[in-house]
Design brief:
The structure holds 2 protein chains of 2 kinds. Chain A is mainly α. Chain A is 69% helix and 0% strand. Classes of the chains: A mainly alpha, B mainly alpha. The interface between A and B is medium-sized, with 21 and 16 residues.
Chain lengths: 401, 81
């Protein structure tokens, strides 16, 4: 799976007794801790203990410590010398973080010039750490709590460490200072959600995966109805796996008095491609919206005449979708996925401009429209694993060619 | 600038961007309540509000906006500078 929740050799797995015991201990420690300073200090060893399972080598630890310290130092410089240091220094640092993210995630990218080609770094969740770092440096001027320890805890908060959700600093810091109350009803609700998450991820997703197209490399031999099933079920498997994971970690955080951002909001009820992305992996898509789409679109809008505005938006959509796609993997399949999704988003906007708001209000029309979004998403997901050529072959086989 | 003036001016921007001369804004109004209000329209609104008041918001400030009330507060904050 691409979500990075399982599959690595190292780590403290969500479905291990060790993890259960650790979470129980963490919840207990946090429940017994009073006062914001004590709470902050109590979180440090818990977070570092969990983090230690995901650091593959001494070199990885150095890189991680470097990332955290450089981010904090840069943000503090920005606060202390807002007028003396030119803004491009910080913009350059943000670009550096993006470059680091792509180079560290794929050591073969730009090999042999990629420094991580010679010394690969194995830190699960490094991209989520980098996202948090980018958010902190960009937003530091409007962030109220500027101390180091709360920042450290934010970066490596153990429930969200491996695969998000990508929290925003203010909300995290507020709950770190003043825990959200956890009464019996909330605790039972959270435990219920954890159980549901486990069922979604480890019972449904893991077992359905056997039917999914990603597990069926011999798709040429599948009967056409089975091929349809394999392709159509794949997005659902990814949803169950990742939203199950999100349920587990959000509920664990809630037991500790933290309200972590939701990651999914009924994506299959989406009414357009755009709406789908507003409901799917929300913490990533809203991060990309705020830190990629918005800056690009605003720059384009301010510096161009009205006639060029739509072109500016189109560029911003394409760049955003390409970043999302290439972040998952730097293969031609992911590249195509980004292009196709970008084109779809721009297409939806053009459609709206030409024809106004959608007029299909009948129940059947709505259902058909939702189904078409589902088919579009699910067939483009095949690009991830099979690349453009094989995906085209799969699509041809699905319609009997 | 008075709160009422800010309200009026923001409302005019919304009327022009939504192409609806009767569009009414309230402090609680947010993107989730208006189907047409997507990420693209949002940027247009922000840029037009900036233009109307001759201010420039930070990306971090825009990312924190939850509703019209926040937007008006942000305008007021920038006008005080």
């Amino acid at each position: 799976m691409n979500v990075g929740t399982t599959g690595a050799q190292q780590g403290l797995f969500l479905d291990s007794w060790h993890f259960f015991a650790f979470v129980a201990l963490a919840v207990l420690v946090i429940a017994l801790t009073r006062g914001k300073n004590l709470r902050t200090w109590a979180l440090v060893p818990l977070n570092l203990y969990f983090l230690a399972f995901f650091i593959g080598s001494f070199w990885s630890a150095i890189i991680l410590a470097g990332l955290i310290c450089m981010t904090y130092a840069t943000a503090q410089l920005r606060l202390r010398y807002p007028d003396q240091l030119p803004i491009w220094c910080f913009v350059a640092f943000i670009f550096f973080l993006w470059a680091f993210l792509f180079l560290v995630k794929d050591p073969n990218l730009f090999a042999p010039y990629n420094p991580f080609f010679h010394a690969p770094v194995a830190i699960i969740g490094i991209s989520y750490l980098t996202f948090r770092a980018i958010h902190y440096v960009v937003d530091v001027e409007v962030i109220e709590d500027r101390r180091f320890l709360p920042f450290l805890n934010y970066m490596v908060f153990f429930p969200t460490l491996i695969a998000g959700p990508i929290e925003r600093y203010d909300r995290y810091a507020a709950d770190q200072d003043q825990a959200q109350p956890v009464d019996a009803a909330i605790a039972i609700g959270a435990l219920h959600r954890i159980a549901n998450g486990f069922i979604k991820k480890f019972v449904l997703a893991d077992n359905l995966a056997a039917l999914g197209i990603f597990q069926n490399s011999g798709y040429d031999n599948l009967a056409i109805p089975l091929l349809w099933l394999a392709v159509l079920i794949q997005l659902f498997i990814i949803y169950l796996d990742f939203s199950g994971y999100s349920d587990i970690v959000i509920a664990i955080a809630r037991l500790m008095g933290f309200r972590v951002m939701e990651n999914f909001d009924h994506p299959f009820a989406a009414t357009s491609i755009q709406d789908f992305w507003n409901r799917w992996h929300i913490s990533l898509t809203s991060f990309i919206r705020d830190y990629v789409f918005t800056p690009i679109a605003r720059t384009m809008l301010v510096r161009s005449s009205r006639n060029w505005h739509f072109t500016g938006f189109a560029v911003a959509y394409f760049v955003s979708m390409l970043v999302i796609a290439l972040w998952h993997g730097t293969t031609s399949g992911f590249l195509m996925f980004g292009v196709v999704q970008g084109a779809a988003l721009v297409g939806v906007q053009l459609w709206r401009r030409r024809l106004g708001e959608s007029t299909h209000n009948g129940r059947l029309a709505k259902a058909l429209y939702s189904a078409s979004i589902y088919v579009f998403m699910t067939t483009t997901v095949a690009l991830w694993y099979f690349g453009p050529v094989s995906t085209l072959r799969i699509l041809k086989r699905m319609v009997g060619f | 600038m008075l709160d009422e003036e800010i309200h009026e001016k923001v409302q005019n921007v919304f009327r022009s961007v939504f192409e609806d001369p009767n569009f009414l804004i309230s402090d609680e109004l947010h993107a989730g309540m208006v189907p047409k209000w997507d990420s693209l329209l949002h940027i247009t609104l922000i840029t037009e509000v900036e233009r109307a008041f001759s201010v420039r918001f930070r990306n971090a400030e825009i990312a924190r906006l939850n509703n019209i009330g926040n937007l008006k507060d942000l305008v007021a904050k920038h006008l005080r500078r």
